[in-house]
Amino acid sequence: MAVIQVEKLRKEFKRNKSREGLWNNVKGLVYREYETKTAVDDISFTIDKGEIVGYIGPNGAGKSTSIKMLVGILVPTSGRVIVNGIEPYKNRELNAMRIGAVFGQKTQLWWDTPVIDSLRLMRYLYDIPTARFNENMERFTDILGLDEFKHVAVRQLSLGQRMRADLCAALLHDPDIIYLDEPTIGLDVVVKEKIRNFILEIN
Ligand SMILES: Nc1ncnc2c1ncn2[C@@H]1O[C@H](COP(=O)(O)OP(=O)(O)OP(=O)(O)O)[C@@H](O)[C@H]1O
Ligand SMILES: [Mg+2]
């Protein structure tokens, strides 16, 4: 059975109709008008164990929105998502234990905390056995070159350094599935290549 099954998945966003002019904006405080934006338009696909799949489309095509439904952050308007036999948004915690996610635009690390402390916190969040944690840390530190900045606060990292730390954080608990939304944003060509090889290797 496929690890990820997506059937006629749809997401519509309701948003306030934009208005021009002061009077129209004042009127808008009383009479709200909404418009519906279809962000994901009845898509279907399946992904099997061991597959590495790229997801492409122009800006605004609905890529991030569909990933958010896969990880369980957003509730689909209609259609179905089944990941490892469960519906992510209905079983968010169970789903979260089995997946890793990196959103290039955001970090899941603690902003004012040194990288290494953020990573240690992941160990408690995911209840990772110590031996496993140490083994993974050693491996990822080496491949992702974390040594040069692991004692620096996350807010002081360069974009590429932060991405490397985020990748490490997403993988420490040995997830079955990883979702990467623009994970190589801001990385130099050498690191991009390293990360692609790294993904092939862990897969
Ligand atoms: N929270 C939201 N409320 C309203 N509309 C939204 C929301 N999030 C996304 N959209 C709209 O849904 C559409 C799809 O957005 P999405 O972020 O999924 O695109 P994307 O394919 O990831 O684009 P990009 O390549 O720029 O990252 C866009 O038109 C966007 O304006
Ligand atoms: Mg996006």
Question: Could you please describe the fold and organization of this structure?
Answer:
The protein is an alpha+beta fold and 203 residues long. It folds into 2 domains: 1-90, Rossmann fold (3-Layer(aba) Sandwich); 99-203, 3-Layer(aba) Sandwich (Rossmann fold). The chain is 39% helix and 21% strand. It is built from 7 helices and 5 strands. The strands form 2 sheets. Strands 2-1-3 form a 3-stranded antiparallel β-sheet. Helix 5 runs antiparallel to helix 6 (159-171). The protein is globular. The mean pLDDT is 92. Adenosine-5'-triphosphate binds at residues 13, 15, 37, 39, 57, 59-65.
Tell me the layout of helices and strands.
Blueprint: E1 4-16, H1 22-30, E2 34-47, H2 63-71, E3 78-83, H3 92-98, E4 99-103, H4 115-126, H5 130-144, H6 159-171, E5 177-181, H7 189-202
Helix pairs in contact: 5-6
The chain binds adenosine-5'-triphosphate (ATP) and magnesium ion (MG).
Magnesium ion binds at residues 63-64, 181.
Task: Throw out a few tags for this protein.
two-stranded parallel sheet, alpha+beta, binds adenosine-5'-triphosphate, Rossmann fold, 7 helices, binds magnesium ion
